[in-house]
Design a protein that fits this description.
This protein is mostly helical. Helix content is 65%, strand content 3%. The protein is globular and about 55 Å long.
Length: 150
């Protein structure tokens, strides 16, 4: 199967670590989130994927959630979200990034609105990167519109 490369974000200046991928950063935010926010993150990430896509990720754990809670609007219980490993969320985010960049960008609103993550450096970096990604997308769209008018 041909997979698109995972988008990476530059490490903060002064940090000697290599670039971090958005899915990895989402996994880190998920790990530090309270259970109710974990459930919301999963619901948000699962939304753009169909049942077959969800079956292919993390041994079908997300497909099981979708099937138990309803095929259209999956609801994830906080207890269920607590059982999901951050690595599995990274895999889910990687798939979602390939299918719907808008869903990944939309995650910034969810994370930014969470008071439980105000002290999380990973959450702050994620929101910052996703906001930049949204701005870049708007700029590209505006440039294409202006080119068509010319």
């Amino acid at each position: 199967m041909n997979r698109l490369p995972t988008q990476t974000a530059p490490a903060p200046s002064g940090v000697g670590e290599p670039d971090i991928s958005l899915p990895r950063l989402i996994g880190e935010v998920y790990e530090s989130a309270p259970p109710t926010l974990r459930a919301s993150i999963l619901e948000h990430l699962m939304r753009p994927l169909g049942i077959l896509g969800l079956m292919a990720i993390a041994n079908g754990v997300f497909a099981g959630i979708r099937l138990r809670s309803g095929l259209v609007d999956a609801r994830v219980a906080p207890e269920e979200a607590s059982a999901i490993e951050p690595g599995d969320v990274e895999k889910l985010a990687d798939w979602v990034q390939q299918v719907s960049g808008d869903a990944i960008v939309g995650l910034s609103q969810l994370v930014a609105a969470s008071p439980g993550l105000t002290k999380s450096a990973a959450a702050a970096l994620l929101v910052s990167l996703l906001m930049q990604k949204a701005k870049n997308k708007r700029d590209r769209s505006q440039n294409r519109t202006e080119e068509r008018r010319s």
